[in-house]
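Technical appendix A lists one of the benchmark inputs used to test multi-chain prediction within the project. The record comprises three sequence entries:
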Amino acid sequence: MKQQKQLIKEDTMDNNIDKLTPNWCAWKNDNNLCSGTSHEQRNHRLLTKQPPCKLKATEAKRKEMVFQKRSSLEMESGGGSHVAEMPRVPKSARGKRSIRKKESQGQVMCAFDLLATVAGKLLDEGEGSLGNASPKDVRVKQEQCDEEAKHFKNEVMDQDSCNESALVSHIAFQRPVNHHGRKGEDPEGSHAVIEDPKAKSEALDKESSMISCTKAELGCNFAAIADRWSPESVESGAFTGDAAAIAMPATTSGFHKNAPDMYNLLDPMDVDVKPPPLVSSDSTGEMPLYGNKIRRSTSFPRVPKGGAGFTVDRDEDDDDKSSGCTHPSTATNRGFRPNCTAGHSRVKKLLACKHRKVAPARMHKGDLSYSDVDRKPSFRNKKMYYTRQRTQRSTFKRRKMFDRHSAQVSEEYAKANTKFAARDSHAVSLEANKGTNSTAFQKSQESSDCHVKLRIKSFKVPELLIEIPETATVGSLKKTVLEAVNAILGGGLRVGVLHHGKKVRDDNKTLMQAGISHDEVLDNLGFSLEPNCAPHPSQLSPPEDNEFMETVDTTEPLARIAPADSSSKHGEVDASQELALAPLSANYQGSDHDFVHSPGGMSSPDKASTNSRAIVPVTPADSNAGAIVPANKAKRSPEQGQRRIRRPFSVAEVEALVLAVEKLGTGRWRDVKLRAFDNAKHRTYVDLKDKWKTLVHTASISPQQRRGEPVPQELLDRVLAAQAYWSQQQAKLQPKTPPLAEALLLT
DNA sequence: CTTAGGG
DNA sequence: CCCTAAG
């Protein structure tokens, strides 16, 4: 056992070796054999009392490395299973190196309560920290840009550029620019016109006097607004002065099926940007404010500086049938990987969430949330995933209380509330005792057209955790904060509608049905910006919503934060940020490939190869999707003990699993995990083991008795074959029987 | 932390 | 999927 571990460590730590042997799995196998990783071997050793062969293994590893690499490659490619092993990133590199380093350097997290930020405290506090630079408050982050980091960075860049253009084109294509009234224009023009033909036609069917837009629509509108919170707009102060004006057509329904869409990260892109030019400029890759470093900010169209009114044009049929919230991993984040990665790597978002193990596990490695902080120990571990998950688990109980508490707090922070006030009545402002308030809204209603017009003066943003070198400039700090905000708004944002303090969950209800009518006192209508996590039932019930109803005019603050020097000449900051960021996305991507490729036979080669560079959303299987989402998706389960959501294995995953098991054999689930599901953070080796168990069972029962997504018989056959083979091996207890996976495969 | 198994 | 005993 020990030897095994040691060897594994070596494997993971020795970058050089890793690099020399892309196909480390192969030689690792060998090592395992030597080190007696497999049961047979272990057993054999025990039986034969063979002394551990640590040295032997190690030496063998190096000596045979080359050979192994070659032969294994041949073997794998020839064996019918095209496991295009992507160059693996040594665990050591994937882990939270940055974090580890940070810790060692006595960095301190600098948490900005966005709320406060918005409330205008940011500058005071933020700058204060910088200025006073008490070692405690400032974290110095000095990451070394090792080759891996660079590599990753490059990859990220590439991908991003692709994404960007892709996204832009997407936008351009799907959303012919619609110009709509801007705030201040006559009632007619100020209506948010939803151009969805369906909606329109349906609208006709409805009583014009009915306020029937669905909540989803409302949400979309807000998402649109949120999107406006772009650097440009902020910089220009547009956001500040411009209250977002939304007018919901009295009779716009028919978005039902799109409802889930509102949770989709793609939402922001659906916003109709007023000036077409902007879109185009974006597509050209112009990055007004941030330059290349901040890609995510350029991922979607920005609102013109003028901060002109805009409208939401929501129609896109959603490809995501899954309620964006329920399946965070799969559905929600597809479109925004870049955002997530970028934003999250540097910003630790405190997602509320009493999410249990899941959430942390899903966070990107670069993420460090409060909760994570608590688990510091884990971060030093090379095996992040496992560690994390486990840690979570083990720590979970102990931290129940804490979690609960933080969860609540976070939730509060996570909500941005909106307040509506009759147009004529000035925005109502409640005491923001908590300072958590985020939004101030004004609602203007015109009974004449039955539109409920809302004007959002400001939003509260979820709490953010920001880390920045103490050598960073104030400007960079501002920039960072802005970025953080953007990350949230752009990627992990959801809008919740509160009515009378209660969350209105049914997106298909019309406003009228929900009791939100133009002639109602809308003071009870509120909106909340929430992390784009899977909104779990539990989280939806917050009776305390009222707390969020406080209204604070945060306009000013916002403006102040945003103006960060667009020209960030703070190499340090950027560098560190990038570093932190790059590995993340790279990892993700890499894993992506890994995953996609693993299934070799199954997934079309094209797909696989293309995928690497493909736009994020393309995620084929799903396991990967899951990986992404995790980042900003804090699954919140009020009940700490919430069971993990069930994620049925896709055929692709099954194939990957089968493939891995064929090669590694049963009983080495951790390796299987590493090999085939390294990126599927939601799949633990236990899960894989269980899956295999069920697969074996499934394979042995009649097709009629099988349930769920049918697994190709071919795979099941392989399962049985592999199972048989490996059990036999185990039975034989033959130590020196190398994995005859090939044999199996060739059979 | 991993595995193996039962639930 | 969860939980736990064992190693």
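The first helix of chain A runs from residue 2 to 13. Residues 1, 5, 39, 381, 383, 386-387, 390, 667-670, 685-686, 689, 693 of chain A lie near DNA strand B (CB under 10 Å from a C1'). Comparable benchmark entries are summarised in Table A2.
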